[in-house]
Amino acid sequence: MQPGKDNKQKIIKGFFYFLLTLLVVISFIPFYMMIINATRSNADILREGFTLIPGTAIVDNYHVLLEYMNLWRGFLNSLIVAVAVTVLSSYFSALTAFGFAIYKFKGSNFLFVTILVLMMVPGQLGLIGFYDIMRTFGFLDSYIPLIVPPIASTFTVFFLRQFLSSVLHSSLIEAARIDGAGEFKIFHKIGIPMMMPAISTMAIFAFIGSWNNYILPLVVLFSPEKYTLPVMMGALRGSQVAQNLGAMYLGIAISVVPIMIAFVFLSKYIISSISAGAVKE
Questions:
Q1: Are residues 192 and 95 in the same domain?
Q2: pLDDT for position 22
Q3: pTM above 0.85, yes or no
Q4: Could you tell me which of 129, 124, 142, 132 has the C-alpha nearest to residue 215?
Q5: Which of helix, strand or coil describes residue 267?
Q6: What is the pLDDT of residue 279?
Q7: Which residue among 11, 41, 63 closes a domain?
Q8: Residue 266 and residue 207: Cα distance in Å, rounded?
Q9: Closest Cα partner for 164 from 240, 93, 109?
Q10: Taking the C-alpha atoms of 193, 153, 119 and 190 in order, what is their torsion angle to the nearest 10 degrees?
Q11: Residue range 197-208: mean pLDDT, rounded
C-alpha cells in the first residue's frame, strides 16, 4: 500500500473515531447532569446551574423523596411487571416465530401479514376499548392488564421470525426429527439457542418499554400501593417535592438503574444479533 494512501485512511479513520467519541460524550452529558444534580440541593441548582462538581445533599434529597412517595415499593412493582413481561413475551414470541419459520400451513402467510399490519397500529388507539374489556373481566387495579397483553408482541414475533429464517436450515430440523426429538424439544434444544441473540435483543427493548410504560398503568391502576415507578414519579409533579429539583433528579436517577444494568448484561447479545448475518472472507 502506498504511504500517501495509508496516511489518508488513517486520517479518515481518526476523524470517524473523533466523531464517535464526540457523540458518546454528547449522549452521556444528560446522564451526568442527572447524577450530579441528584447530589445537590435545590438552592444550589437554582443558584449555580450546571456544574461538574457533585454536591453533598444526596442524603437530604433521598429523605425528601421518601416523604412523598414509597420509592422502593414502586421500584418493586415496576420490577415485577417488567421482568414478567420480558420473560413471557420473549418465550411466547420465540415460540410463535418458530412456528411461522418452520411450519408451512394453510393461512400462515395471511396470519403473518396480519401481524405486520398490527405492527402499524398505535396501541393508544385501542386504549378505550382495552379499558372496557379489562373492566368487563374485572382485571382493573391489577397487574394482569400490564403483563398478559404484552405477551403478544407483534414486532418481537416479526423480528425473531426473520432472524430464525436466516440462521436455521430445515435440514437441521429434519435431522432432529429423525433422531426422535419431539417438536417442543426441537424448539427448546435448537430453536431457542439459535435465536438467543435476537431474543436477548428483544428482551432489552421489552424490559425498557415495560419499565418506562406510563399511560397504561396510569389508566388501569387505582391503588397507590400498586403504582409502578413511572406513575409515582408522575404523581410527584403535583406535590411539593416537585419544588425540590435535587429530589426529583435523584428519583429519576434511581429509576434508570435497572435499565442500565439490563443493557450492560445483554449488550453482547445485541452485537451478536447485529453481526449474525456477517460473512467472513
A1: yes
A2: 92
A3: no
A4: 124
A5: helix
A6: 42
A7: 63
A8: 11
A9: 93
A10: 20
A11: 87
What pLDDT does residue 278 have?
A: 46
Query: Are 80 and 195 members of one domain?
Result: yes
Q: Which three cell numbers stand for residue 141?
A: 387495579
Cα–Cα distance for residue pair 196/90, rounded to 1 Å: 10
CA distance 123 to 175: 41
Give me the residue label for grid cell 414509597. 70
Mean pLDDT, the chain, as a whole number? 84
**3-state secondary structure labels for all residues of 15-81:** HHHHHHHHHHHHHHHHHHHHHHHHCCCHHHHHHHCCCCCCCCCHHHHHHHHHHHCCHHHHHHHHHHH
* Any domain includes 178: yes
**Sign of CA pseudo-dihedral 245, 247, 250, 256:** negative
Q: How far is CA 176 from the centre of its chain?
A: 34
Query: Could you tell me the residue range of the domain that residue 232 belongs to?
Result: 70-238
- DSSP H helical segments within the chain, as ranges? 3-38, 42-48, 58-68, 71-102, 108-119, 127-137, 144-147, 154-167, 170-178, 183-186, 192-212, 215-220, 229-235, 245-274
Please determine, for residue 143, whether its predicted confidence score (pLDDT) is greater than 90.
Answer: yes
Among 78, 35, 88, CA closest to 259: 78
Taking the CB of residue 23, how many other CB atoms lie within 10 A of it? Answer: 10
Question: What are the cell numbers at 24?
Answer: 458518546
Q: How many domains, in total, are found in the chain?
A: 2
Does residue 220 register a pLDDT over 90?
A: yes
| Spatial distance between the Cα atoms of 161 and 99, rounded to a whole number of angstroms | 9
CA–CA separation, 100 vs 94, rounded Å? 10
C-alpha cell at 215: 399511560
Burial of 221 (0-12, 13-18, 19+ CB in 10 A): buried
